[in-house]
Every structure is written in structure tokens, then in C-alpha cells.
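**User:** Here is a favour to ask of a fellow structure person. Please take any protein you like and set down a full record of it. No explanation is needed for now; the record alone will do.

**Assistant:**
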Amino acid sequence: MQILRTSSPTTAARRPAATGVVVAGIAVALGLVLTGCTDSAPEPTPTPTASDEAQAGVTDITDTPGSGEGLEGALADAEVKTCELSGDHWEVAGTVTNSSAGAASYRIYVSLLTDGGDTRSLSQVDVDPIDAGASADWNATVDVQDETLDCVLRVERYAS
């Protein structure tokens, strides 16, 4: 019986080396293709858009928001009637109506915010106890001169 060989022993010994060369060639070609698709430009650096630096904000509070014992959130009890720049300061005023079953005092925090949501001021207004169902006026003057600000309240109610 004879065995038919399709390749010589020399060719068979070279086959793994030839396969390695082909694989290496494919890897180099893929590397060149991927390099051509990769953006080599540096990443952009953010730059400030404001032309002037903002002045420091105003904080006029004596109690940290949320620090009172027995507080209840009562945003619905407060109404802003005025929030406007008046000369070199802001005038903020409103009414608070006690919606609880008993007398309560209020702590109102008035924030003046930029369109971007930055706080320019935080002021505290304390309202003495008022009877259930009764209303009281409150107001704050804030020494900030920014022209376009929004008034945002945080209202805390405390049973008397």
C-alpha cells in the first residue's frame, strides 16, 4: 500500500509560518483602517460664556433650612405677590395662609435664582404664629442688583 502525499515535508513545515504572516498582515491592515477612522484632534476644552464675573451672592439666614423640629412643608400656604428689582435691591413680598387645624408660625426662605438655576441670594423671613385659617403678610428686601432673577420659596410651618 502506498500513501499519497499532497505536499512535501518541507512545505508542511512552512505552513504555520505562512499562516502567521497572513494573520499579521490582516492585523496591520485593520490597524491602518481603524487609525484612519479615529479622530486625532484633542478634546475641546469648555470655556466660560459669561462676559463678566458674577458678584458674590447674598445669604441672610439665621436657621438652616430643614433644621427646625416638627416642621411641615407648607409651600401651598404661601403666595408671592411682588418679586421685582427696585433700584439697587429686590423687593419680595407675599401672603401666607395657615391651612393647618391650629395656630402655626412660618419660616419662609426666599431664593433669587438666575435663568441657569444659580442662587444669587437666600433670605429668611419668619412669620409669627397665626391662627388656623388666618393670613399674614411677609416681605424681604435683598441687596442684589442682578436684573433677571426668579423668586423661589421654601416654606416651613411649625405648630405653635
Remarks:
- The longest helix spans residues 9-37.
- The beta strands are 58-60, 72-73, 78-86, 89-97, 104-113, 119-130, 135-142, 150-159.
- DSSP finds one helix and eight strands in the chain.
- The mean pLDDT is 80.
